[in-house]
Every structure is written in C-alpha cells, then in structure tokens.
Design a protein that fits this description.
The complex is a heterodimer of chains A (about 325) and B (about 325). With about 325 residues, chain A is mainly α. Chain A contains 15 helices and 2 strands. With about 325 residues, chain B is mainly alpha-helical. The chains are: A mainly alpha (about 325), B mainly alpha (about 325). At the A-B interface, α7, α13 and α15 of A face α6, α7, α13 and α15 of B.
C-alpha cells in the first residue's frame, strides 16, 4: 500500500484495512483460493473431491493444534508442549489398545494429557512462570516419560487401534473424512466459546490488558489453569487423530507439527501479544499451510526449498498483518 | 542528583557492605556456581574414577550448547528471542564441513572466518526483519528457522563433509595439564574476547537498555532499531561459533537442526536471564548448560534410564522458576 494510494482513496483503504483486521478469514480464504487455483494450473485435474478430502484429512490434526495456540496466544501465552503431548497421546494409546481395549486406549491418553495441561496451568496461573518456559519444561518431561514408557513397552509391542486408523484416515461415502466429523464439534465449541461465552471473553480480556482484567474481578489464575488443561486435551485429541492418520505410534510423531501450529495461528491473524485473533482464521491458516505444502510438492521443489518458501511466506503474511493492523 | 559532593563524602561504605550488596546482586550466579561445585563433588562421589579424561569429554560435549546459550542470552537480554539458533547452527555447520572437506589446513582458517561472517549476516537478517516488519521476534525467528534449516538442506542433503584437523584439535583434549579441558578454555576465551568488551561498550549498554525498556531507551536517544539488529547479528555470530564447534567435534556437518534452540532457551532462563529482557549475563547460562549436562552424567552413573535425565531437566527448569517466584512473593510480603 503506497502513500499516494492512501491519500487518494482514504475511505477505501481504511475499509480494506478494517476488513483485514476484523475479518481476517475473508482475505485468507482469497489467498487459499489463489493457492488452489495455482495448484490446479500447475497440475490440471488435480483438484477434485478426492483431493479436497485428502487435504482436509491432513489439515484436521494441524488445525486442532493451531486451536491450542490460538487459545493460549489470546491470553498472551503460547503452548510449546502440544507436540510432545500429542505424540504422547498417540503413542500411549497404541500401547494400551491390545491389553486394555479401545475405551481405555482413548480415555487414558486424554487423561494423562489433561494432567500435563493441569500442571502447566498451575505453573502459568499460580506461579506465574512464563508460558513459553513452562510449556517447554512440560514438553521435556512428557517426552522423557514417553521414552521411559516406550522402553517399558518394548516387549508388548504397539499398534495403532484399528478404530483410530479408521477415524484418522477413512472417509464417509468416499468423500467426507471421518476425522472431519470429529473436528466439526471441536471447531464449533472453540468458536462459540470464544464468541459467546464469558470464558471466551475472559481469555481476550486477560490477553488484552491483564491489569484491567484483574481490576474488573477476573480471576486470571483460574482462567489460565482451565485454559492450559483444555489446550493439552485438544493436543491429545489431535495426537490420537494423527496416529490414526499416519498409522504410526512414535514418541516424536507430532513434534514436526509444533512450529506449523504456531505458524497457522499467526497466519490466521491471532496476535502472539494477546487479545486479538480468532479460531476461524487459524483453520484457514492451517489449510493454507497444507495446500502450500502440496503445491510445493506438485511444483517438484525438494524438501529443502519447500522449507525456505514456507518460512518466507509466514514472515510475509505476518508482516502484512502487522502493517495493516498497526497503522489502521 | 540533589546530593552535594560534601554530603557524599560523609557516607562511609564499609567493605563488608560492598561485599553483601555484590553478593545480593549476583545471588543467582553464586547459587549456580555452588550447585556446579556440589554436582562435581557428587559426581566424584558416585563415580570415584571420574577424573581428568571425563572432564575433557564434558568440556567437548557442552561446547555447542554453551555457545548456543550465549547466543540466546544476548538476544534475550535485548528483549527478543531467537528460535532459529538451532537452524543457524545446522546451516553454518554444513557450510563449514562442506567447504573444508578435502581442503588444506590453511584454507580451513579462511572457511572459519567466512562462516563467522555468514553467522553475522544470518543474525542481521533475522534482526533486520524483526525491526523492519514490526512482527514479534518469536514469529519472525520461528519462520526464519524454516528458512535456515531449508538452506542447510540445500547445501548438503545428508550429514557429511570434513573438518580441518586443527579445528578438531581445538576442542578435544586437555590444555597443558590434564585437568584443564581445552574446550572450556576455548569457550572462555571466545566469550571473553567477544562479549566482555562489547558488554562494556556503548552498544552493550544500549542492548541492556532496549531490553529493559524499549520506550525509555528510545527517549534517551538509544538507536533502538540499530541496536536490535546488532544484537541479533551478535547472536548469529555465536550461533555460527556453536555450529563450528559441532563441526569441530564431529568432523562432519549435519543439516538437521539439533535440539539446541529450545535447550538454549531453557539454559538462558536457568542462567538467570529474564525473558522480559534487560537483565542477566552470558556466564550464568554457560554454567547452567554444564549443570544440566552433569545431572545427565550423574543419572547415567546411577544406572538411571537416560530418559529420566530429560525428565529431570524439565522438572528442574520448572521447579527453579516456580521457587524463584515463591521467593519473590515471599520477599515482597516480608
């Protein structure tokens, strides 16, 4: 946006800015559509219902993890433990399913995840440890304990539960991924809680101005404890889906999703400083990252160049946001 | 300043007071050193054969992370954070290993100089982007970590290459007597030559100032943007040194970033540097790295699963910060 343009058409630029700031989903969807168009141009015929189904299936775990980042970033925090917690959930589930059955193989990992989140929440909320450090420390603990558990389980062996495999990779009527059916309620719950409930408002309030929130009577420590427990639970669900999608049980399964989950939230317009953002943008952000990755593969770029382009685009989008939102 | 010189003269400062106030200011550092001595004694107690050779191994193995921790400390002091340190280490390490492979020893010197310059440039790019875009440091460096890791893969797809012999000799073995690991001396010399003069210069003061309060620094006439870029460049330089130390100790370069980024953040915080910026130094983080490594060693000697050492690292990180908070609350109430 040049200076002249701003002088000539102040009304329109301001409108565009407000759109970008208040409804980031719209420009992001345009970007997504452009990417899909480019991929169709690069490889005509690739975009069909089946391809969409594959993309959605791959996006769901990332989008849930991005949800963890959105929720924590709204309060000015971040959750670096989602990778370790998600991997742990997928792995623990795979080790339990043969001996204890499916219900336990789903309930136990989620309970462990919630416990890890509870500890994180106590550290951040009550002891005021910096969220970055607290979640980092918890991720060390979870990863280490997962490895210990792995050594214990070498004899019994592990396999992803067939039900999870179906959930993670099968489709309904050959079109709608089953994991998407898990995702929809999660998505609605997050979006509606953020928009319509007092708890959602509290998250924004604490992130926007912690002092004002405290003076208005918000008990931020309670909010944070609940928040990090929810975040870890979401990470656990994402881990179960991811293990089903990839059909692997590994203690490092979701580690590579940690940084993309932060990137998806940032691209989606959530500010890491707190108080601004929403989940809708992060979902589109996660879709953009998945489609971008597919596009770079179609273009025949090696993994190395893909990473470079990936990073460059994250900086560019984040810079565009900052420019638009700061000057408006 | 309302005090006249005459009044100042009458205030007598007893040496004991000076000592206590110095100790109070360096409480964290003294605690770390005490912990280090305790751990060394404990190690010797658990494993009576622990001696000079093991100490040399310790020095070589902590060098990359210690340098990464110094790199992270500098940028954190300036009020930022650099999540691309591990990737910069991978990139500088593969560049060094690829350039030195099969070349003469003299050429190796040139490569080292070039790689250090590369580190400065990488760091300056990080800092330049942070300043120019106004995007939070953590987001920019997170994204750049992809860029640098991808570039490392472009340089070399799989681990390989070579290192000049003198470079390897620089970090392995003892210096003079057996009890002085060469790597530790190298570390201290590097930090003493680069960081100490800088931290006492105008730029060093500005770095602490922008970390402590950006606005106050700006209003006092500190060139905030320039200082930030320079701080990032310095971080890049130390990341390059860390990458070179990886190449030196393994004689190859690996394009896959190690766990150094997040471990360096942990070490910096344990080393008494405030994540909010403006407080702390680089020696605390270096000692913290050695402490974390020693705890791992001790647990191995005690026949504990090495993974528990990883857990212990996380628990210590959390416990130390929680107790620091408790002490802080207790002090303000007292």
């Amino acid at each position: 946006m040049t200076v002249e343009a701003r002088a000539d058409r102040p009304g329109r630029t301001v409108a565009a800015r407000n759109l970008f700031r208040d409804r980031p989903v719209i420009p992001l969807t345009v970007l997504l559509a452009v990417l899909v168009a480019v991929i169709e141009l690069a490889d005509p015929g690739i975009v069909n219902p089946n391809w969409v189904s594959v993309v959605v299936r791959q996006t769901v775990p990332l989008a849930i993890l991005a949800g963890c980042q959105v929720l924590t970033m709204l309060t000015g925090g971040i959750d670096l433990s989602v990778g370790a917690v998600a991997s742990m959930a997928g792995f623990v589930s795979a080790t339990l399913v043969n001996g204890w059955g499916l219900p336990a193989a789903i309930a136990v990992p989620l309970a462990v995840a919630a416990l890890a989140g509870l500890i994180t929440g106590i550290g951040v909320g009550l002891f005021r440890v910096h969220p970055l450090i607290m979640t980092l420390g918890i991720s060390f603990v979870v990863l280490g304990l997962s490895n210990v558990w792995q050594l214990q389980m070498v004899q019994t062996g592990a396999g992803v539960a067939p039900a999870l495999r179906t959930l993670g990779s099968a489709t309904l009527f050959d079109l709608v991924p089953l994991s998407f059916l898990v995702f929809v309620p999660v998505m609605l719950l997050i979006i509606l809680s953020l928009r319509r409930t007092g708890y959602g408002r509290l998250l924004y309030a604490i992130g926007d101005n912690p002092v004002a929130a405290r003076l208005s009577g918000a008990k931020s420590w309670q909010v944070l404890i609940v928040l990090y427990t929810i975040s870890a639970l979401l990470a656990g669900i994402a881990g179960l889906l991811l293990s089903g999608l990839t059909n692997t049980a590994s203690v490092a399964l979701a580690d590579s999703s940690l940084l993309p989950s932060v990137a998806a939230a940032v691209i989606g317009g959530t500010s890491i400083m707190g108080g601004r953002g929403g989940y809708g943008g992060a979902i589109v952000g996660a879709l953009i990252l998945t489609v971008l990755s597919a596009l770079l593969t179609v273009l025949g770029l090696p993994e190395a160049s893909r990473q470079v382009v990936f990073g460059a685009i994250i900086v560019a989008v984040a810079a565009a946001y900052t420019r638009v939102t700061d000057q408006a | 300043m309302t005090a006249t010189p005459a009044r100042v003269e009458r205030v007598h400062v007893r040496p004991a007071d000076l000592l206590t106030s110095w100790a109070r200011r360096n409480l964290w550092m003294l605690g770390l050193l005490a912990l280090l001595v305790f751990l060394l004694a404990l190690t010797k107690f658990i494993q009576p054969t622990y001696g000079a050779i093991a100490l040399q191994g310790l020095g070589t193995s902590v060098l990359p992370l210690a340098l990464a921790a110094v790199a992270q400390a500098i940028v954190v002091i300036s009020g930022g954070i650099d999540l691309s340190i591990g990737s910069m280490m991978a990139l500088t390490s593969v560049v060094a290993a690829t350039a030195m492979d099969g070349q003469s020893e003299q050429f190796g010197v040139l490569v080292v100089a070039g790689v250090l310059f590369l580190g400065l440039v990488l760091g300056a790019i990080n800092g330049g982007l942070v300043v120019a875009t106004g995007v939070p440091d953590i987001v920019v460096t997170l994204a750049m970590s992809f860029v640098w890791a991808g570039s490392a893969l472009l340089v070399r797809e799989r681990p390989g290459g070579g290192a000049s012999t003198w470079l390897g000799n620089l970090v392995v073995g003892p210096l003079g007597i057996d009890w002085v690991p060469k790597a530790v001396v190298v570390l201290i010399v590097i930090v003493a030559v680069i960081w100490i003069p800088i931290s006492r210069s105008r730029f060093g003061l500005s770095t602490y100032a922008i970390g402590s309060s950006r606005l106050a620094a700006f209003r006092s006439g500190v060139p905030v943007g320039r200082t930030k870029v320079l701080a990032y460049a310095l971080t890049g330089l130390f990341a390059a040194l860390a990458g070179l130390s990886l190449t030196a100790s393994t004689s190859i370069g690996s394009p896959v970033p190690g766990p150094y980024t997040l471990e360096s953040v942990a070490a910096v915080v344990l080393g008494g540097v405030s994540l909010a910026g403006g407080r702390g130094g680089v020696f605390g983080p270096m000692v913290a790295v050695v402490i974390l490594q020693l705890i791992g060693t001790d647990l191995t000697f005690l026949n504990v699963d090495p993974n528990i050492a990883f857990v212990a690292q996380g628990v210590i990180l959390i416990a130390v910060l929680m107790s620091a908070r408790v002490v802080e609350v207790w002090r303000t109430r007292a």
